[in-house]
Design goal:
Distance between the termini: 13 Å
Radius of gyration: 22 Å
Shape: globular
Helix content: 25-40%
Strand content: 15-25%
């Protein structure tokens, strides 16, 4: 069936924002954002267009305190506790909304009066009514993993035949090192590909009847910074705000690209990339604009040739933690993963330590859960 995008959740988000503007525009409130996520950036951009000023952001992550996000200062929530602000209006749009609300209530702030939810994110991400799957049979997690491995095996085959490079990444690299396969509670597969190789792969798969890849660099309405390579055997409805789409069982393909030689230049370069990504998310209601920014982003990532760069990096939630010497990828090695021998970077210890710290120690039992936001089905 290919890739089909839906806009239900995005429409809810912008409708709620418009209702907020209608209700509070003109009131002299001290508007504060809770959290620095992508959604917070979308809220900032929308309210700026409506001439509504956000004072600052609060966030529980200590490493962010004293820094900026979306042009706004970031403080600890204690900033509100130490100096009670009767005029404050805290905006929440987060998967951690319940904990945030409880935290504010413990400081003496009241729901509806001092803080509100712009969207109920957990509710939206559990609502799959954007497509009717009556009569379809849900896949088990084992069936999903089996098909993910088929996609990964096919990626390895295509890359080998066409001299393209891919590398195990993130939790998949960790799984290969620690478990020789999936982390038992994991529910996805992550790989890296050099940006040009991603585009070449896309061209190769255009004539493939069983496998496809979609990226934000293609002329499509897929806007995530990572790509998805998927099979056509089953159908998957993905619901990870703000992206809602149907495709097949997939693996994540993150772009890998060259960066400048000095850390100062790299920080500025990655910030430029993040700004482009944020501009794209801020105009989801305008397909043409999103595609223009996606093209601009692709050109931006080609500025430093991967093969001539001293350091390389990738887009992910970690950004700066993905910066590694280019030689770790060019000097790739084979890893055991679910009975296959697959490509990965050399010096995995350096890479995994930067991302996970003590990566060989298992997390607490309560954290050993998957985070998938999709439903997978057999065709009826």
């Amino acid at each position: 069936m290919g890739y089909v995008r839906y806009e239900n959740a995005v429409k809810v988000f912008y409708n709620n924002l418009e209702e907020f503007v209608t209700k509070f525009q003109g009131e002299k409130r001290n508007i504060v954002l809770f959290g620095t996520s992508k959604i917070s950036g979308m809220i900032v951009a929308y309210l700026e267009k409506k001439d509504m000023k956000i004072s600052y952001i609060i966030d529980n992550a200590k490493m962010k305190h004293g820094k900026k996000a979306y042009g706004l200062d970031i403080y600890s929530p204690e900033y509100l506790k130490n100096d009670f602000d009767e005029n404050v209006l805290v905006l929440i749009a987060s998967g951690f909304q319940d904990a945030m609300e409880k935290q504010l209530e413990e400081m003496g702030y009241e729901k509806g009066r001092h803080f509100i939810k712009i969207i109920d994110l957990p509710e939206l991400m559990n609502d799959y009514s954007f497509v009717d799957r009556s009569g379809f049979t849900l896949l088990t997690q084992d069936e999903i993993k089996t098909e993910m491995l088929c996609v990964l095996k096919y990626l390895d085959k295509i890359c080998t035949e066409n001299n393209l490079k891919y590398y195990l990444f993130g939790g998949t690299l960790l799984g290969a090192v620690r478990h020789k396969g999936f982390i038992p509670w994991d529910d996805d597969i992550d790989v890296l590909m050099e940006v040009r190789d991603m585009i070449t792969l896309s061209e190769i798969l255009k004539n493939d009847k069983n496998y496809s890849i979609v990226t934000s660099f293609d002329d499509s309405d897929y806007y995530d910074e990572l790509g998805n390579m998927f099979s056509e055997k089953y159908i998957v409805d993905s619901n990870h705000f703000p992206m809602q789409f149907s495709a097949g069982v997939s693996i994540d393909v993150f772009p890998l690209f060259g960066v400048p030689d000095t850390m100062e230049e790299i920080d500025a370069y990655l910030e430029g990339f993040k700004q482009l990504e944020m501009r794209k998310w801020n105009c989801l209601y305008d397909k043409k604009k999103c595609q223009e920014i996606a093209t601009e982003t692709f050109q931006y990532l080609l500025k430093y040739d991967f093969y001539e760069s001293k350091y390389v990096a990738s887009s992910s939630n970690h950004y700066t933690k993905t910066i590694v010497p280019q030689e770790y990828y060019l000097n790739s090695v084979k890893y055991d993963f679910e009975g296959m021998k697959l490509n990965g970077p050399s010096n995995y210890d350096y890479i995994l330590s930067r991302t996970y710290g003590d990566y060989m120690t298992l997390p607490p039992v309560e954290q050993r859960v998957g985070w998938h936001t999709y439903h997978a089905y057999k065709y009826s």
